[in-house]
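2024-03-11 09:14:02 INFO worker-7 job=invfold-0412 stage=load source=structure_tokens
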């Protein structure tokens, strides 16, 4: 019984040490992860902006053909 608990304890210590090493190494990856995440966010918002601009152009083109008046006129603040 004591021998089993000793083996169990040793295994738990090994697992703890492995996890502690992973946690200790984690901050080393943060700068690279942060830079990659920032690139992904910029790409996402650029794509989202392009989507909305294209949707706006399509609506401007097709709503009059469907005889649906635009309810809201939105202007780009950068173009003012």
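2024-03-11 09:14:09 INFO worker-7 stage=emit residues=80
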């Amino acid at each position: 019984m004591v021998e089993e608990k000793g083996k169990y304890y040793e295994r738990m210590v090994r697992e703890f040490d492995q996890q502690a090493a992973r946690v200790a190494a984690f901050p080393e990856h943060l700068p690279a992860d942060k830079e990659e995440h920032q690139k992904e966010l910029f790409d996402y918002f650029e794509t989202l902006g392009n989507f909305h601009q294209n949707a706006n152009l399509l609506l401007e083109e097709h709503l009059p053909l469907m005889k649906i008046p635009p309810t809201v006129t939105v202007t780009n603040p950068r173009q003012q």
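2024-03-11 09:14:09 INFO worker-7 stage=report msg="The mean pLDDT is 87."
2024-03-11 09:14:10 INFO worker-7 job finished
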